[in-house]
Structure formats: C-alpha cells, structure tokens
Amino acid sequence: MDYIATHLKRALNIESIVSIHYYEYTSDFAYPGEAHDFWEIIYCDKGILQISADDRSYTLSRGQAFLHPPKQYHNVRTMDKRAASSIILSFYSDCPDLYGVAGKIIEFDDYAVSALLSIIREAQICFDNPLGFVMESKLNKRGKNEVFASEQVIQNYIELLFIHLIRRHDVIDIFPEIPRAERSSLLAEKISEYMKEHISEKITFGDIAAEFSVSPTTLKKLFKKHFGCGTIEHLTAIRIDSAKELLRSGNYSCTEISSMCGFCSIHHFSKVFKEKCGMSPTEYVKTVKSMLEYH
Asked: What SS3 class is residue 221?
C-alpha cells in the first residue's frame, strides 16, 4: 500500500514573543501608556485594573482579560487605592481571527487559566528575566542547562490558549439574535447532539467542557437545568438508548454493541445496562422479542 501524507493546516501561528510578565502593582500604580506593532493580552489575577484601549476605558476584575491588537494605544492603572496583579503576554502573529476576540473583556474559564499558568511556568524554565520586572526590552534565554523544547512548549501553549478563546467566541455567537435563556437551551441540545455523534468514543466531562468552552460549574448547572441530571449521567443514558435500539435490531452481538456505544468492555456494558434497565442485555432482547411477537 502506498501511504499518502496529509498536510496539516496551521490556522494560528505564534511567530515570536516579546514579553511574559507577572506584575504586582502598588495601590497607586499608573502606567502612562504606549502603542506597538505586536499583540498584547493583559489578565487580571488580583484586584481591579482600569485599562484604556485608544479612546475607551475598561475595568478588569479578577479572572478577566483584554487583548490589545497591534498599534492600539493602551495603558493600565490600579483602582480604589488597592493593590492588584496581572499577567501580560505580548507576541507577534498574523492570524486575522485574533481580531474577533480583541477589543473586549474576556472572561477566562478554567482551561484558559490553566494554559496561562503553563505559559508562566515554562517561561520561568526558559528565561532568566524576573517575571515582575517589565523594564527589560528582551527576554534572555537561559542557554546553559536549557530544558528540551521549552521554547516550543511556550509557543504551543500560547497557540492553544488563543485557539480556545477564538473557538469559544464562535460558540457564544452561534445564536447572536436569540435571548439568553433560549441560547442556554440550544447549547444544551447542541452538547447532547455532540454526545450522540461521538457515542462510540471515550468522552470525559473535561472533554465536553473544553469542546464547548464552558467551565465545569456552568456545564453541571446547564445539564441539571435542561435534563435534570448530571452531564455524564445524560451521556450514559444516550449510550443505553442507542444500545437498546441496536439490540432490538438483532444485527449485532453484545460485544459489537458495547464498542459501538462507547463502553470500555462488554463487562462494563453489561454492568451499566443492568444497573439502568434492571436486566442484562440478553434478558432485554428476549423481553423485547416476546413483546414484538405478542403484537
């Protein structure tokens, strides 16, 4: 067989980074402002920050971020005489989709925070600049005792972070003209359809949260509200319903159905089926067949 390679498209590429800072501000901090030809994201990790973006002002609370596009004038200061801290990451990229998440307050979910934390940790391994010192114009590579691929790991995490933010933005705007309550219902149905389409795959709670860019807490509340059960409980119900349909068809063995419906083994399938249906798959088939013969 002649194998043909598949070229992988790069939709977003971080060409280079300019700075990675974790900065702790004094209660009276005020930066005069600047504009430059690269992207810059500021994430508020503690306190409250007031930032400007050209002629508009925004207030960032803990867990919120703002992405400045290239050449946008911006500054930052603390508010209410309270200390604060932020993570500032600046970089070059020619991805036009970044403009879709720029210029607005971004609520970071668990995935985004985790990616940001990984960037900071890897930067401490890769560079010897103090993360809180913003006056240096260049990141200094450690060189000696360099950890394998640390620069590439930073690049990968930054790309994953912004791919996640862009995807989440797309999910949020799927139903732009629909009221919030209806959006919630449609999102729940969309996730349920995703489960059905990927029923043969191993799907975890974390996979679902990441795929639809929602926090674990939001996901739990969403399924409790719309389906009256937990997320994985709903997924299990979908698997069982599909298994019942396949059992009724009489075209597949229990082992085949177990695999087709995403159970890790025939033993796991039989155990869960009996817990949910009060009988084994084999017993269920016999019962259905007798009912069909009766009618």
From this structure: helix
